C-alpha cells in the first residue's frame, strides 16, 4: 500500500482477463470516438449550455433517459453473457466464464439494471412529464434537480470504471454479508458497489424531496389534487417512497462500509455482529424500491390507456386510492424476501398476508385499464401494444408473486430460478414495457417528430417473444430444483430449456438493436413525421397544450384548470367554438439560470469515491473539500434567475396560437 | 404582475414549517414556554430513570411517553407545527414520516427478536443441560 | 399582518391551504422550507434505521463492556442542557432576523454555535474516554452501533455548525435578503430537528439503556 496511490497498482488493469480487457478497450475507444466526434462538430458549447448545465426539467429528463438507455446496453450485455454461459455450462460443459467472473457479471447485471437503468429511466420520465402535466414551468428546486442527475451519473461512472480498473462485487446485487465483509471479499469490488450506490442514493433522495414538493405545492391555478393526471399521482407516491426508503439504504450500506473500512461489527461473524440484520434492513429499502419503479410505470399505462382509447380513464378516484394504498402497504411486506431466514410462523404469516393484500389494489388498476379501453375507440399505436402486452403478462407475474407470498411455498422456491422468473416477469412487462410505451408516447413532445411506427411494432414483438422465451422456462427449472446464480448446472436434461432461454435472449437483443435502428432511422426521416401541432396523439393532459418541443418555460401563461382532463375540455371547447380562448395577459418570465454546480460536484464526488475505493486518502479529502467549496461558491451567488423578455414570450405564444388555429380550421373543414 | 409576484401574495394563505409569525412578544413567548416545558420533561425523565419508587417495567414506558411528549413540545413551540388548515401539508408530511419510523423500528425489532425462533437451545443452555 | 412580516412573506392570515390548488404555484417562502422539511423527515427515517440497529444489537456485547458499565447520565444531562439551550437561542436568532436586527441575530447565532460546540466537546470527550478504555467501536456490535448512532447525530451537529458559520458570514456580507432568510429558516428547522433526535437518544440510549 502506498501513501500516494493507496491500493491502486498496475495489477488492477485486467490484462489477464480477455473478456474484461476486450470490453474495456472497446468502451474506451467508443467514448474517445464520441468525444472526438463531438469536438470535431464543435458541439461542446451547445451540450454544455443546453444540457450539461441546464436546470430545465425537460433537458434533465432527457439526460436521465439517455443514461438509462446507455446503461441498458451494458446491463443487457451482462445478461446475454450469462445466458450463453449457462447454456454452455450444463452437465460436462465448462462454459466460458470462470466462477469469479460469472459472479461479478450477475452482480453487475442486477445492480446496473435496478440502479442505473430502471431508476434513471423512471426518474427521467417523471422529470420530463410531471411539470408539464401540472401546467407549471419547472420543478420546485431546478438546480437541485441538476445536481441529482449528476450524482446519479457519478454512480454509474464508478460502476463502469470497475470494469477496467479493479473488479466489481461478486456478492449479488444486494451484497449480503458475511460474504460482502472484508474477510470474505477483500478486494475492491464490494467497495465499488457501496460507494457508487451511496453517491447515486444521495441524488435520488434529493429527487424525492424535489418531486413531492413540486406535486404538492406547485401546480397550475385551479388544479386541485383530484384534477391532477394519474401519472402525477403515481409520481407522488413513488417519490414519497423514495423519501421514506432511501435513507434506510444509505444507513445499511454505510454500516457495511464501516465494517469493511473501520473494522466495526454490525454484520460480521465475530464481535456480536448479526448478518441477518443486514438482510432485514436492506429489504426494508428493497421492497419499496420495486414499487418506486412500478408505480410511475402504472401511471404511464394510465395515460396511454386514456389517450389511445379516446376516453377518460375509468375510475380515476379508485386509481388514486389504489395508488396511495400501494404506497403505504409496500412498507409492510418486506419480510417476504426472507421468509426462510427463520423468524418463525407468526412473523411469516403476518408478512405473508400483507404481501397478498398488496395484490388487490393492483388488481383494481388492471380492471380500470380494461374498462378504460372497453367502449373506447382504441388506436393501436406502439404504446398501446406495450400496454396490452403488459396487461396480458403482468397478471401472470403478479400471480406468481402471490404464490410466493405463501411462506410454505416460498420455502420450496426461495432463491430458485422460479424466483428469478417471477421478478423478471413483473419487472419487464411492468417497468420495461412502460418505459418503451412512454418513450414512444412522449418522444414527439421532446423532439418534435414521432418515431417510426413499424419499427416500433417490430421491436415490441421481439420483446414480447423474447421475454417469454427467456423467462417462462425458468419457472419449470425452479420447480425442478434449479438454484439461482449458479455458474454450473449439473442436470443435462435442462439443456433444451436453457437453449430456449438463450434464443429468447437473442430476441431481446434484436429488440434493442431495432430500438437503436429505429432512433437513427427516425432522425434521418424526421421531416416525414414532424409533430407540427404539438398534439400528435389527440392527448388529454396539459403537456399536449404546448408545441413540440415546448419552449424553455413551458407555458407563456400558466393555464387555468377547470376540471379533470384540463387540456381535453379546453380543446373540445375550442373545437366547438372554432376559436381559441382569448389572448391572456402576457408577462416577462423569470427562469432559473444554468449552473455548473451539478457536474462539478459530481466530478469531485467521483474523485472522492474512487479515492475511497482505492484507499487514496489524500485524494478523498481533496474530493470532499472540492465538493464543499463548490457548494459554498454556489451558495454565494447573487444571480439566481434570468428574465425572458416579454417580446420573446409573445412571439412564441402567437406562433403557437397561429398553428393551433390552423389545426382548428383543418378539423372544422373535415367535419 | 408576474407569476412569482402573484404567488408571493398567496403565501398569506399558507405557512412554511418552522416560520414564526405575529408579534415579538408572542413569538418569543412560544420559545420560552417551549424551553420551560422541555426542561421540565427532561428533568422528570432523569428522575424517573433513577428513582426506585416506580414499578420497574413501567419505567421504560414512562420514559418513552415523556420523550414523545418532549418531541411534541419541540414540534409545536419551536417548529410551529399546528393543526391549522394552513399547516395541513406540514402535518401530513410529519404523519407520513412518523408512520415510516414506526414501521421501520417496530418491524425491525419484532423481526430480529424472533430470529432465533427456530433455533434449538443456545450453547450455554446445552452445557448446563449436559452438566447435570 | 404586520408590514415586516409581509416583507418576507412569512405570515398567514388564517385562510386555508387545503391543497385545492386554486391559487397556482406557491411562493418560494413556502416551497423552500417545505422541501427542507421533507428532507429533514428523510433524515429522521435515516436515524430510525440507526435506532433499529442499535435496539437489535444493544445486547451483542461479545462479553465486553455494557451500557451500565459505560454510560454516564451526568454527561448525558450536560449534553442535553447544552443542545436544548442551543436550540432555544436559535429560535431567538430567527425572531431577530425577521426584524432585520443584525446585532441580535449574530449574537444569538454565536450563542447557538457555542452551545452546540459545548455539546460536541462533551460528546468527543466521552468517545475518547471509551476508546482509551478499550470500549471502542471495534470492540463489539453494541459499541459499533452506539458509536454510529450517537456519532451520526454528532456528525449532523458538526455539519450544522459549519452551515451556521457559513450563514453568519452570508448574513454579515449580504444582509437580510429573501433567499438568505429562507436559508436561515431552513437551518433552524434542521437545528430543532437535531434536538428532537437527541431527545430520542438520551431517552433510549442513556436512560432506558442504563436501567437496572
Topology:
The complex is a heterotrimer of chains A (671), B (132) and C (212).
Chain A: H1 18-40, H2 44-52, H3 57-88, H4 99-134, H5 142-164, H6 189-217, H7 230-262, H8 275-309, H9 316-329, H10 345-357, H11 359-373, H12 382-404, H13 407-413, H14 417-447, H15 453-479, H16 495-524, H17 566-577, E1 589-592, H18 597-613, H19 617-635, E2 641-644, H20 646-670
Antiparallel strand pairs in A: 1-2
Helix pairs in contact in A: 3-4, 3-5, 3-16, 4-5, 4-6, 4-8, 4-14, 5-6, 5-18, 6-7, 6-18, 7-8, 7-9, 8-11, 8-14, 9-11, 11-12, 12-14, 12-15, 14-15, 15-16, 18-19
Chain B: H1 3-10, H2 24-50, H3 56-78, H4 88-113, H5 123-131
Helix pairs in contact in B: 2-3
Chain C: H1 3-8, H2 28-57, H3 67-70, H4 73-98, H5 102-132, H6 141-174, H7 178-207
Description:
- The complex is a heterotrimer of chains A (671), B (132) and C (212).
- Helices cover 68% and strands 1% of the residues of chain A.
- Chain A has 671 residues and is mainly alpha-helical.
- Chain A has a two-stranded antiparallel sheet with strand order 1-2.
- Chain B is mostly helical.
- The model of chain B is unreliable at 1-13 (pLDDT under 50).
- Chain B has five helices and no strands.
- Chain B has a domain at 18-80.
- The radius of gyration of chain B is 24 Å and the shape is flat.
- Helix content of chain C is 76%, strand content 0%.
- Chain C has seven helices and no strands.
- In chain C, α4 (73-98) runs antiparallel to α5 (102-132) and α6 runs antiparallel to α7.
- Chain C is elongated.
- Chains in contact: A-B, A-C, B-C.
- Chains A and C meet through α6, α7 and α8 of A and α2 and α6 of C.
Largest interface by Cβ-Cβ < 8 Å: B-C, 64 and 66 residues
What's the overall geometry of chain C? elongated
Treating each run of at least 4 consecutive H or I residues as one helix, how many helices of chain A?
20
CATH level 3 topology of chain C: Four Helix Bundle (Hemerythrin (Met), subunit A)
Distance between the termini of chain C: 54 Å
List the secondary-structure elements of chain C in sequence, H or E.
Answer: HHHHHHH
Binned strand content of chain C: under 5%
**For the record, what CATH class of chain C applies?**
Mainly Alpha
Please tell me the CATH architecture of chain C by its name: Up-down Bundle
Number of domains in the coordinates of chain C?
1
Question: What is the number of strand segments of chain C?
Answer: 0
